[in-house]
Structure formats: C-alpha cells, structure tokens
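Next up, sample data.

:::
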Amino acid sequence: MATKIDKEACRESYNVVRDDNSDVNWVIFKYDGHTIVPDLQGTSYDEFKDHCTNDRILFGFHRIITGDAMSKRAKFALITWIGDGVSVLQRAKVSTDKSLVKEVVQNFAKEFVICDHQELAEEYIKRELEKTGGANYDAQLE
C-alpha cells in the first residue's frame, strides 16, 4: 500500500514550529500504519534526539536561532532519521515518503539524512545551518 500524509495535521504542527511566538522548536512526523502524521513536538533538542531510536524512521522539522552580535534569525532544518535497525525495504521507501513530507515542510535552510547519533549533535546541525546564512560578523572572533 502506498504511503499517504495527513497534510492538514502536519501543516498545523509545521506552522507551530515556524511561529516566532511559539516556544515549540521541533516536531516529529512519524508513520501511523501507511500514513505520515505529526507525533511529538517540544522545546528541548535533547528530547527530540531521544526519539531517534535504532528501530524507527522519522522526519523532524527543527528551528534553531543563529546569527551573530549584529542579528539573530531563525533557521530551519528538515531531518530524516533512519535507525540502524530499520529494514532495507523500509529504507528504500524513505526518499519517496520524504517527498510527501516536503509537500508540507517547504521552507528549510538545510536538509539532513542522518543514520548516526553523532550527526544528531545540536552543535553540528547549528554549524551547518549557519553556513547557509548570510554575513557572519562574529567570524573575526573565530
């Protein structure tokens, strides 16, 4: 059976993360049978990482504040997590299923496909998002 997405529910969760007035900075989209639906959302990136287990595939949308002394701005990442214990057949479906997620999650600075917990480090994600930004006036401090 082909995978579907609950666009309305996913879009609602996506918009909560994008809302500058919301403390929520991540949402997980998961499989519920053959349908991708919003799962959890939260304010702590460590909480998000806790749900990236070896037995699952999930799609995460995450807001990180980047910038320098002159300006701060929100950057967004689309994270596809594929656990080590996921079957080859499930892995093969990820790219086509991710296209369904991208119908809802349309604005992000960088996309990540991660299978290794070390690559989930928030500092790594933030560093990669900062590379997509404009001027960095703190560069002279590095």
Observations:
- Residues 88 and 122 are 27 Å apart (CA to CA).
- The two ends are 52 Å apart (CA to CA).
